[in-house]
Structure formats: structure tokens, C-alpha cells
Amino acid sequence: MRVTVIGGTGHVGTYLVPRLVRAGHDVVSISRGRREPYRDDGAWDAVESVTLDREAAEERGTFGDAVLETDPDAVVDLICFEPESAEALVTALRGEVEHLLHCGTIWVHGHSDVVPTTEDEPRTRRPIAEYGRKKAEIEAYLREEARRNGFPATVLHPGHIVGPGWAPLNPAGNFDPAVFSRLARGEAVALPNFGLETVHHVHADDVAQGFQRALERWSAAVGESFHVVSPRALTLRGYAEAAAGWFGREANLTFEPFAEWADRPEYDEDDVAATEDHVRHSPNASIEKARDRLGYEPRYSSLEATREAVEALVEAGEVDVGES
Q1: pTM of the model
Q2: CA pair distance 88, 264, nearest whole angstrom
Q3: Which of 110, 157, 303, 307 has a CA between 20 and 30 Å from the CA of residue 163?
Q4: Which domains does the chain have, with CATH numbers?
């Protein structure tokens, strides 16, 4: 199969493109610039790379045609964030491809009523943030196109994607690597509330696995949505205690009501906003549907995935472990 991956050198594409090459597919990677993937892999030598600025091409109304020029049997769209972008791409691809796979997010769910949350949970809660609302609108559109008009679309919803090369969501619910530094040195780390809100990570390679399995199980995937996350979510407190243990420490944790925690000097406005988003969502997503229908089986637990990412940060000097 000839597969075009939009956003092929990003977090998920770094792992997906080589997976598809090794599986025998002919792969085209579309990226905005000539950036390198997050990890080296000889499989990239067999990939056709196309430089294309999506935003500029969409403004000209030529993006869909440019994707079609790569002659795909299937298209994986990893960087669609606007409903209008999804609609324009479907219009261009209609009748021309066998499969369109879209990267969504577990934030299409609002507050959870029952956990773990399933893909088919009634949408009694609207998504909380604009990102989740837009992704939910795209998901609804693609599933409607599949059901009513026979357009072959599938949506996969990752959790908090992690891997070597970028900072993972930390136990305070934001992306400040200094939180890991303080845990590594045995210093106090403040968590909001009682630290019992949840986060649900997934290694980028496990997301890639989900896309590959959906691509290769067309009849089970078309018209459906699937969560692609680790087997279990983490509480902030449990995550912090485990992360301290990676460095031979016991976590020195304090807890404060969110409004007080948000005034702490070690966190800037972006940190506070990120934490608020994550604790308000507190995702805990089921992967049983993906396991049953696609054969999805994540290689990494949440802690294994985040530990690999943190070890890369330590090696890069972005996490200061102090003297052991």
C-alpha cells in the first residue's frame, strides 16, 4: 500500500513512518520544513519526503490536491486541528483513497462520569478546552461521513504523547522539567489538591502501533474511533512517587488547594494553565475497543514511557539530578 503521512517527522510520525516501511508499505512523508525526525532510523532512506506548508497551501486552496499528487492509497493525517481543514481534505480525497486516518485526542471527552472512559461513552459532557472541542467536531464529521456517505475514515485518540526528545507531562500536570530535577534531588514538590487527579500517557511508538494496526485492519477500523493510550492512567501523586524512585529517592510532596498552588513562585503562567487543563480533564481512557478490534497492545506502561523520556532529558542536561 502507498501511504502518505501528513506530519511525518513529528512525534508520532517519527515512529510510524519507519514502522510502515518495515511492514512493506511505500511511504511518503509530508512535513512543513526539512526537519529531522526525533530519532534516527535507516528506514527513512526508503521514504519519499515532500515539503509542504499546510497552512499556506490551505489558504491557496491547494493542500488537498497536493496530497493527492503523492498518489496515496491511504492518508494518515497527524496534524489536522481545524474542522475546516478536515472538511477540505475529505472533499479532495473523496473517491480517491481507500482510507483516511485522523489523529484525535482523548480530550474530546469532557469531565468523566464513569472511568475508564470508553470511546462510545455518551457525550453528556462537552469537551472542556477549545482544542478538545475542535477535535470532537472533526471526529463527529468524519464518523458521519463514514456512516452516511461511505467515506473511509478512522479516528485514533492518543493521550499525553511522550518519548525521547521532548519534555513529558510531569507529575505536577505541566511540562516544566525542573519538577523532575526536584524529585531527583529529594527536594519538596508541591502538587495541587491531594494529587489524586489522573493523567494518561502514551509512548509515541504505541500511538504509531495503533495507526499501523488500524491501517492494516480496514474493515474493523473504518467509521470508528479508538483510544490509543497506555494500559492504565496515573494519579499525580503516584507518578511523583514513582519518578522520585527512579533516582533512589522518596518523594517529598506537599499538597495545596489549586488556587494556593497556582500562586507558587516556581510555576509560571503557562505552567499553571497547563496544570489546570490537565487536572480538570483527569483522563482515564479504556483501550479495550482497540485491543479487541485492532489487536492494539501497548508496549509501554505510562511509567515506562515517561521514564524513557526523562532519562533522555537527564542525558541532555535538561534534568539536574544533583549529586547522588
Answers
A1: 0.97
A2: 45
A3: 110
A4: 2-161+201-228 (3.40.50.720), 164-199+232-283+300-315 (3.90.25)
